């Protein structure tokens, strides 16, 4: 297997330098699926760190690929706006979903504050026991002596249960949440839907379902789940239905896909780096630091997009008002000028917390502590039970330049 | 030079010597005071070096600037005397400063 990986990385390395810079197609989702994106980003960081793509299926856009430049864009929201969308892809103008991650202040601040209490310390303390109980149950039920998909049996199961709790969603129907989450991020090759029309129809069913929950809770004050918070929040209680759906989409994807793929990514990273797996067995107190390293190494959201509100300069390039600017977190997290030996997975890396995966500035990930806690508990309980979660085949990755994750991680577990 | 007293959420005190010109955040990191994460490394862009300045000291320390205010504003644990410690420069007048740490940085 490692030989196959070597050959394919050598091939993509050649490809990355075989084309002219202006033909580099840095957005190409096939490379994310095939895991051949790395030399392309390495080349941009070196030769053209703020790079202009004049033509792409998503129109023209700038790529920001170095850590410090990404930090600059992320922390200057008065120049680089989130209004209207945060991915390279534009929203369908007949199906626009406003959500607070894709808003500027002051509305962004008000809506975010309405829900951020759900992941504040008092609630996190309460959630840890629940998470541990669920993790134990999931791990204890795993099949022994047979190969299974870690993504389905562990990553999806755990994050969906968490999401159901945050929404106080009917627990037995929680697989609906997984389906909607996949529907939002999957592309047309996923086989999950027949047409864009079909997809939008399914999302409207999601809205209908959640409207039922809203109506149940709007007359009962004091609920501390996300739906009650939205239904009673000053800045959200009168929002139009599509804005409710937009914010649901944000909370479903933000609370689900990201942690899911970091839970899977940790298994992949430790198997590709057996010396690090041994280091972990020898010293489980490294888990909190390893969790940050997993989140950096995986970078579960590959990019965030902004739009320039004025003419501005970045790393010597002239960006015009209205230009799309893409911050490639996945590239900044491998920037050797900020992170020494950045391609390596090192569970006791110094300053592991200083990564870009959560973003910086006012849009910084709201659920970061909850995500870290889930990953920490998962690995604490894995180490108690298993000598190895062994990767027994090549993982299958999502075809997306936004959600950087896995559909299939074949493993076998070996008891301690 | 200033002595700064960091009080953890559980009441445990850490009194450290800090050089003029460095940030209060760096003083905590250099002396391994637990409870300051400093995820962004001191760029005023993550709010994980949040401290609550003792009421007697807030007049000397001063109030947050605009960018700091926008970061603090996002924090559900924010209090009246909250500051980001990466934005407080150590100086002689801060000798004896008392800051309290939140239960978690978020």
Describe this protein's structure.
The complex is a heterodimer of chains A (416) and B (106). Chain A is of the alpha+beta class and 416 residues long. In chain A, 49% of the residues lie in helices and 11% in strands. Chain A has 16 helices and twelve strands. In chain A, a hairpin with a 2-residue loop joins strand 6 (312-314) and strand 7 (317-319). The longest helix of chain A has 22 residues, at 196-217. Chain B is built from three helices and five strands; from the N terminus they run E-E-H-E-H-H-E-E. In chain B, a hairpin with a 5-residue loop joins strand 1 and strand 2 (13-18). The A-B interface holds A 71, 74-75, 105, 109, 112-113, 116-117, 119-122, 124-125, 351, 353-354, 358, 360-362, 364, 368-369 and B 37-41, 43-48, 67, 70-71, 73-74, 76-77, 102-106.
Which key features would you list for this structure?
heterodimer, A: 416 residues, alpha+beta, 5-stranded mixed sheet, 3-stranded antiparallel sheet, 16 helices, 12 strands, 11% strand, globular, B: 106 residues, 5 strands, 18% helix
Summarize the structure.
Chain A has 416 residues and is α+β, with helices and mostly antiparallel strands. Chain A has helices spanning 2-18, 29-34, 38-47, 67-75, 107-115, 121-140, 150-167, 175-185, 196-217, 226-232, 241-254, 257-272, 274-282, 287-298, 329-332, 368-385; strands at 50-53, 61-64, 80-81, 148-149, 303-308, 312-314, 317-319, 324-328, 386-391, 396-397, 406-408, 410-415.
């Amino acid at each position: 297997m490692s030989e196959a990986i070597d050959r394919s990385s050598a091939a993509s390395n050649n490809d990355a330098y075989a084309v002219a810079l202006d033909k580099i197609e840095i957005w190409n989702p096939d490379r994310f699926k095939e895991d051949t994106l790395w030399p392309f980003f390495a080349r941009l960081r070196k030769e053209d760190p703020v790079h202009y793509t004049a033509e792409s299926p998503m129109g023209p856009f700038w790529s920001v690929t170095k850590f410090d430049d990404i930090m600059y864009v992320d922390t200057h929201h008065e120049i680089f706006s989130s209004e209207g969308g945060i991915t390279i892809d534009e929203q369908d103008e007949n199906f626009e979903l406003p959500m607070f991650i894709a808003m500027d202040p002051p509305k962004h601040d008000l809506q975010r504050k309405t829900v951020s209490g759900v992941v504040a310390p008092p609630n996190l303390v309460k959630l840890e026991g629940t998470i541990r109980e669920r993790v134990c149950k999931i791990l204890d039920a795993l099949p022994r002596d047979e190969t299974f998909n870690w993504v389905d049996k562990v990553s999806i199961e755990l994050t969906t249960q968490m999401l159901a709790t945050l929404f106080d969603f009917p627990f037995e129907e929680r697989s609906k949440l997984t389906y909607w989450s996949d529907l939002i991020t999957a592309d047309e090759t996923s086989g999950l839907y027949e047409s864009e029309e079909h997809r939008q129809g399914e999302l409207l069913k999601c809205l209908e379902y959640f409207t039922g929950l809203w109506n149940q809770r709007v007359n009962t004050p004091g609920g501390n789940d996300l739906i009650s918070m939205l239904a009673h929040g000053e800045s959200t209680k009168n929002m139009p239905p599509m804005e409710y759906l937009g914010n649901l989409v944000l909370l479903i994807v933000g609370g689900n896909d990201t942690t899911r793929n970091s839970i899977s990514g940790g298994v992949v990273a430790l198997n590709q780096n057996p010396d690090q797996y041994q280091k972990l067995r020898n010293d489980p107190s490294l888990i909190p630091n390893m969790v940050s390293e997993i989140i950096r190494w995986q970078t579960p959201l590959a990019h965030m997009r902004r739009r320039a509100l004025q003419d501005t300069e970045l790393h010597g390039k002239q960006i015009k008002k209205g230009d799309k600017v893409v911050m490639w977190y996945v590239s900044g997290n491998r920037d050797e000028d900020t992170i020494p030996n950045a391609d390596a997975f090192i569970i006791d890396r110094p300053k592991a917390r200083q990564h870009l995966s959560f973003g910086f500035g006012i849009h910084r990930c709201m659920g970061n502590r909850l995500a870290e806690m889930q990953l920490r508990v998962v690995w604490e309980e894995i180490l108690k039970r298993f000598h190895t979660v062994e990767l027994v085949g090549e993982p299958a990755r999502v075809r997306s330049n936004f959600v950087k994750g896995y559909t299939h991680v074949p493993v076998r577990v070996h008891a301690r | 030079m200033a002595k700064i007293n960091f009080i953890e959420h559980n009441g445990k005190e850490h009194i450290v010597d800090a050089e003029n010109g460095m940030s209060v955040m760096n003083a905590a990191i250099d002396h391994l005071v637990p409870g300051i994460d400093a995820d962004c490394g001191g760029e005023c862009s993550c709010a994980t070096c949040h401290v609550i300045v003792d009421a007697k000291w807030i007049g000397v320390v001063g109030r947050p600037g605009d960018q700091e205010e926008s970061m603090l504003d996002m924090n559900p644990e924010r209090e009246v005397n909250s500051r980001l410690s990466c934005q407080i420069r150590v100086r002689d007048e801060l000798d004896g400063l008392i800051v309290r740490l939140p239960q978690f940085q978020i």
